[in-house]
Input
Amino acid sequence: MSPKLPGNQRQVLLRRYPEGVPETTDFELAEGPVPQPANGEFLSRTLYLSLDPYLRGVISGRHLYAEQVRPGGVMPGRTVAQVVESRHPDFAPGDIAVCSNGWQEYGLSAGAIDLRKLDPEAAPVSTGIGILGMPGLTAWAGLLHLGEPMPGETVLVSAACGPVGSMVGQLARIAGCQAVGIAGGAEKCSIVKDEFGFAECVDYKTGDLGEKLKAACPGGIDVYFDNVGGEVLAAAMANLAQGARVVLCGMMSGYNNAGPPPPGPSLIPLIMARAILRGLVVYDHEDKQKDFLRACTRWLQEGRIRYREDIAHGIDKAPEAFCRLMRGKNVGKALVRFA
Ligand SMILES: NC(=O)c1ccc[n+]([C@@H]2O[C@H](COP(=O)([O-])OP(=O)(O)OC[C@H]3O[C@@H](n4cnc5c(N)ncnc54)[C@H](OP(=O)(O)O)[C@@H]3O)[C@@H](O)[C@H]2O)c1
Output
């Protein structure tokens, strides 16, 4: 262990399983040892922690791919971190990488899967877990490969102010489509239009969403990229154009619910619109990573793509920031910047 490294580190543990929307008291700050890398591993210091909606499913044991976190366990999560000690052949001290340190100041990484070195000259490193990371790839693969947008078509996306939704709209615009967003509240809607360049954004928290969508998408919705499910999905499905494609990406409106899901929307409008409903799992699209990064890094550098981050400062703010995310209070990609 290098003498510069502390023996202990701060960590955030799950204290108990949340009931419904998580509370800060469901988490606790603790101290744990800084581990030492074995052969084939590196130790890195967390620079940025990604807070993502899927973590709610990891906590409740409903995530398909990630193991459930138990009370007393360190909260998991993707991170951008700087290598401080390495016994890994491909990573040297100073390198900055996307890895999975979780909600703690230091973590060990091994192998190759899930690890990606970042070039700080190419883009701000925080984007490695935002629009140039998993959320960006989700938007890229879901819209371009499943939604198959054609120039002139109308693409509607919910949670349009978040990293997935904002990227979907911007990629739709670049593909020559009319991008329409759905977001909660006037502030988010104006960001979606003014910063992300959507043609229109509908606030689902006031008025009749179905009527508002009809007005915003007079020719019908050609591609609906759904991030929330529930009533928003039902309203969008009632306004589909002929031959529409619906990409089911996320069900944010139900993640905090315990028990069986509420009765779903009628599927009849899908049949009437001859629509195609496609499920998306980002991990199926790792082979598109190079194309995605090549194009989007350039568009980011050229200012054709923008992003917004909602950054909390300090590991001790991670629980509060996660609870804000799960209440939909984040404005942009939720991150924690460590000291
Ligand atoms: N399929 C995949 O492989 C994959 C991969 C990545 C992400 N996803 C999904 O993509 C969606 C967007 O992810 P993101 O990282 O970009 O998140 P995000 O947009 O930063 O945060 C989620 C947003 O959901 C909206 N929301 C709608 N109903 C809500 C409710 N009842 N409670 C709380 N929030 C609600 C909120 O925005 P408004 O206030 O604007 O409604 C909130 O800010 C999520 O559903 C996520 O699970 C799926």
